[in-house]
Amino acid sequence: EEEEEEAQRATQPGSRHRRHRAIGPDRKEKKKKQPPRRRTTVVTSLESGVTLGSGEYLADVFVGTPPRHFSLILDTGSDLNWLQCLPCHDCFEQRGPHYDPSLSSSYRPVPCSDPRCRLVSSPPDPHLPCRRRSRSSSS
Questions:
Q1: Which of 19, 66, 95, 126 has the fewest other C-beta atoms within 10 Å?
Q2: What is the SS3 assignment for 109?
Q3: Are 120 and 134 a contacting pair, CB within 8 Å?
Q4: Beta-carbon contacts of residue 54 (< 8 Å; ≥ 6 apart)
């Protein structure tokens, strides 16, 4: 009966903190029963480039193991974000470093058969890793 009363109080408006506390232990117990998974941490910041005169959205991201800092321009008209990687062929000029996969122990190439590669053009040889070879322009 006490648990039922606590559950009712937890769902009342303004009791958000209690609701999380009331159901928190159950969630922890369920997590204990699941096999351990490799954890991925995403750390990023997002700011407008308006103050820089560009009008683009800029994000600071850390990629690889060990993590290396990169600044990205986020294209709000696309769900695809990317870094220029080494070796880099037909790349555009950039101020910061290129991503070097040989310096990351967590890097894995993405095969062209991966569904994520449908977003980019395929290489001439399907056994090679996918590379983005498209350019965009806005009107």
A1: 95
A2: coil
A3: yes
A4: 73
Using one digit for the tens of pLDDT, what is the confidence trace for 5-59?
444 444 444 433 333 333 444 444 444 555 555 555 555 555 555 555 566 778 8
The domains of the chain are located at 2-33, 44-105
> Cα(first)–Cα(last) distance of the chain, in Å?
64
Between the CA of residue 71 and those of 41, 90, 98, what are the distances in Å? Answer: 17, 20, 11
Q: Rounded distance, CA 15 to CA 127, Å?
A: 56
Q: For 91-127, how does the pLDDT look when each residue is reduced to its tens digit (9 = 90+)?
A: 888 888 899 999 999 999 888 778 877 777 655 666 6
Q: Report the C-alpha gap between 100 and 24 in whole angstroms.
A: 41
Task: Give the 3-state secondary structure of 32-56.
Answer: HHCCCCCCCCCCEEEEEHHHHCCCC
CA dist 69 and 129 (Å) reads 24
Q: How far are the Cα atoms of 71, 72, 75 from residue 78, in angstroms, in the given order?
A: 17, 13, 6
Entry pTM: 0.49
C-alpha dihedral (15, 21, 26, 31), degrees to nearest 10: 120
